[in-house]
Amino acid sequence: MRFSQFISEMESMDNDAMDSINQVLADGLENNFQNPEDGFEIIKTILGGYGIVVDLMEGLNPEGDEIALDVNTQDGPLILYVIYSLTDDDDYEFYAELTDDDGLEEIISDDEEEDEIEKN
């Protein structure tokens, strides 16, 4: 096996692991929460199961927020992207994704495109 092929396979394994974690996050955040702290506690618990420590946020915005947190993993630093908002039923819906710098840029650019479409 050539070194470049080995590196390529290692990178795909990391992406598979991150995809797996993100699927567990999506499943864990499927239901709405009564307050933002409950949603963050689920995120903290899920990531803790993978050895990723995330501090629970204090002073969370009761209207919702979009947050990018640096997290350290065994494979190096990543970013936890979290967006949560208050629903019409006074519950909180959450979305969380573990990503890298490139993935965060893609998420942000997708959000900007959606905002522009909504304005038009």
Question: What topology does this entry show?
Answer:
Blueprint: H1 3-28, H2 36-48, E1 64-73, E2 76-86, E3 92-99, H3 101-119
Antiparallel strand pairs: 1-2, 2-3
Structural summary, described in words:
The protein is an alpha+beta fold and 120 residues long. It has one domain. Helix content is 48%, strand content 24%. It is built from 3 helices and 3 strands; from the N terminus they run ααβββα. The protein has helices spanning 3-28, 36-48, 101-119, and strands at residues 64-73, 76-86, 92-99. Strands 1-2-3 form a 3-stranded antiparallel β-sheet, sandwiched between helices. Helix 1 packs antiparallel against helix 2 (36-48). The longest helix has 26 residues, at 3-28. The N and C termini lie far apart (52 Å).
Shape: globular
Unreliable stretches, pLDDT < 50, 5 or more residues? 6-10
* Largest sheet strand order: 1-2-3
Proportion of beta-strand residues: 15-25%
- Give the SSE string: HHEEEH
Computed over alpha carbons, the radius of gyration is: 16 Å
What is the SS-derived class?
A: alpha+beta
Individual helix count = 3
Q: Percentage of helical residues? A: 40-55%
Overall pLDDT level: 83
Number of domains: 1
Biggest sheet record: 3 strands, antiparallel
The overall strand count is 3
Distance between the termini: 52 Å
